[in-house]
Amino acid sequence: MVARNKEQEKEVLEWVFEILGEPVPKGDYEEILKNGIVLCKLANKMVPGSVKKIQERGTNFQLMENVQRFQAFLKKYGVPEEEIFQTADLFERRNIPQVTLCLYALGRLTQKHPEFTGPRLGPKMADKNERTFTEEQLRAHEGELNLQMGFNKGASQSGHGGFGNTRHM
Q: Global pTM?
């Protein structure tokens, strides 16, 4: 499992609470996020109405539903499945670095959503950089490959003790 990065966790919390327009509360990273309330509020700030019901209090099972609602939001928003944390990763603290990775993925993805005008989290995504080459440019390098192919002329692997070269006495 990947080690936790306290600096990234701090950056994630600052990003989340900047979007929410609230000060970052005191407490441990995982405790602040654990019940999913903050995450559901974040989803609703990013895409109003995306989480219809947020359990403010209740049993662990009811609070875990908040996390599951947030995960459904992540899928709809476009976060890749492999970057979305499992409920137990957060709720049972099984893999907190995966939670951080997931929130970074969400932050990165906001750049692909022009309707999101909030703060950025993580590096800027690369823009599409298509290149077009003329036939002449494409053909210009064909000769170079042919020269490289003939460089080891005469070299072979014969006699290197493979299965076929063993003699029995």
A: 0.71
